[in-house]
Amino acid sequence: MDSDTGSTCSRSSTPDLPMDSAVGGFFSEKMFQAYCGDEAGPIRPGRPRAEGPQAASSKNRNRGELSKENLQELRLKVNSRERKRMHDLNQAMDGLREVMPYAQGPSVRKLSKISTLLLARNYILMLSSSLEEMKKLVGDVYGASQSHPARPVVPQLPQMPLHPLAQSLHSLVGNGTAGGPSATQAPHSPPSAGYLGFHAPPPLPSLLKDPLHLTSSYRHFPGMPCPCALCQPLPATTAASLHSLSMGK
DNA sequence: TAGGCCATCTGGTCCT
DNA sequence: AGGACCAGATGGCCTA
């Protein structure tokens, strides 16, 4: 990369920053500038400017009246804002990754953005479905207690039909179409977008080989036996508990 | 080496 | 008018 100070921060816009460090939990612009060692990167040379019919907006007309210095100053300011915006977006993405039921750690490659979003969507769907099933089961237990008032009512969670429910949730998350060899793949690779996509296009074989496929309808990931809360002895449906489970923190 | 992923720059558009 | 948001373009890094 040529003389772009932004490149100084290449691959580091989502460093291992403490989420609670900066005001509002985000990496402040000043921090970022200090991190990058520059206020704003110079204009990247060699990039073709968009010229033609689109370049006739009022703002562009105004720019014609600006001096070169002012124009460059404005450009740097806008670039800096855009960088900050993207860094905030990445921070939010990191926050989302942290609560995803997926193995995390230094030896685990970070989920890509698209994978994070798709996994988050599936995770929300799974939790919603789990909540509905739980409501139904609680309703059943309550109804049983009404019909047998003499017997002590113990919500027999361990004896609950976990497996079918878990299976359904697994198929919800794992969409069993993702057949394919995988157990021999790298143990620390994140799930691919193809696998994670709930309505994703037909997954490419290369997109399916990352996660360990240990069951017929769900893929388990290293470091995390099963993200499905219903597979745990005690339901832990909150993201925090799942996070602690997966992180071992 | 090709492809995926990413950061950054940039201009256009929308919103306040 | 200025800022936020968006999408296209570009180039770097990394992995299979």
Please provide a written account of the structure.
- The chain has 249 residues and is mainly α.
- It has a domain at 67-145: MYOD Basic-Helix-Loop-Helix Domain, subunit B (Irregular).
- Helix content is 43%, strand content 0%.
- It contains seven helices and no strands.
- It has helices at 29-36, 58-65, 68-98, 113-147, 162-174, 193-196, 239-247.
- Helix 4 runs antiparallel to helix 5.
- Residues 1-58, 151-189 and 197-249 have low confidence and may be disordered.
- The chain binds a DNA duplex (16 and 16 nucleotides) through residues 1-2, 4, 6-7, 9-14, 41, 43-44, 46-50, 54-55, 57, 59-60, 62, 75, 78-79, 81-83, 85-87, 90, 112-114, 206.
- Residues 1-22, 38-67, 171-196 are annotated as: Disordered.
- Residues 73-127 form the BHLH domain.
- Residues 1-15 have a biased composition (Polar residues).
- Keywords: DNA-binding, Nucleus, Transcription, Transcription regulation.
Q: What is the C-alpha radius of gyration, as a whole number of Å?
A: 25 Å
Question: Tally the helices: what do you get?
Answer: 7
Helix content: 40-55%
How many DSSP E strands?
0
- Mean pLDDT, to the nearest integer, reads 52
Q: What structural class do you assign from the helix and strand content?
A: mainly alpha
Strand percent estimate: under 5%
Biggest sheet features: none
Low-confidence spans: 1-58, 151-189, 197-249
The arrangement of helices and strands along the chain is: HHHHHHH
Tell me the name of the CATH class of the domain at 67-145. Few Secondary Structures
Distance between the termini: 39 Å
CATH topology category name of the domain at 67-145: MYOD Basic-Helix-Loop-Helix Domain, subunit B
Pfam family, one: HLH
GO molecular function, one term: DNA-binding transcription factor activity, RNA polymerase II-specific
Keywords: DNA-binding, Nucleus, Transcription, Transcription regulation
GO cellular component, one term: nucleus
